[in-house]
Amino acid sequence: MRLPRVAWAAGQGAKEYRWLPELARHLSTPISHPIALGEPTSAFPWQWSIHRWIHGENAIHADVHDDVEFASDIGHFVRDLHAVALPGGPRAGAQNFGRGVALLDRDEATRSAIDASAGLVDVQRVRDAWMQALNVPVYQADGVWVHGDIAPGNILVHGGRLAAVIDFGALGVGDPAVDMMIAWNYLSPRARHRFRHVVAVDVHTWQRGQAWALSVAIIQLPYYYNTNRTLRDSALHTIDAVLRDGSLR
Hints:
Elements: H1 12-24, E1 34-38, E2 48-51, E3 57-58, H2 67-82, H3 107-116, H4 123-133, E4 144-146, E5 155-158, E6 161-165, E7 172-174, H5 182-185, H6 189-199, H7 203-224, H8 229-245
Antiparallel strand pairs: 1-2, 3-5, 4-7, 5-6
Helix pairs in contact: 2-6, 3-4, 3-7, 4-7, 7-8
């Protein structure tokens, strides 16, 4: 069951119910499959949904046998999703928290989070990397279908392999770069190289993807630092991975 906890997430259920069954027909990787949509009542004020059960363990805690092979599995999912020719999808914007919009649209929030992270990370290095990101050429083509939040918490593992990708609340049509974030928020450098080879994106999409990983992580860091240890540690890991990678230099 998926039950939104805040009003701004209430539209996710209807969006997933509308689009995920159609997208699934184009994908070899299992994804969330909503089978019922519940209506608001006095007991619960928003729409909610029921999905088919998928066997697997959250990637945050799962044992991945071969991280390079696993990166290849995720890369094939991303490449296949971006290739889906299904018209009429929801454009990236407020409906999916801006996942897949231009990096400049995240500039104010990212800069504010960098300032709020003083003492938690090397904010000057983060600021320099973000400024470099804003110089990367913007995405000019028609948007593609994007998951918008490919992170370990939204990946299921079974038998050491990718079992499914879940939680499509940030689903939309926009810049494919946003789905590169997994390269830094989860994969090792060796696995990251394989992922990049499989998704086969151009260098500017890859650089924007690195910037997306940095932006999401630095915004998460001060927000969750004292309230959610898992997301705090994930943010710190991602920021370190981005700064060590150096693709934005």
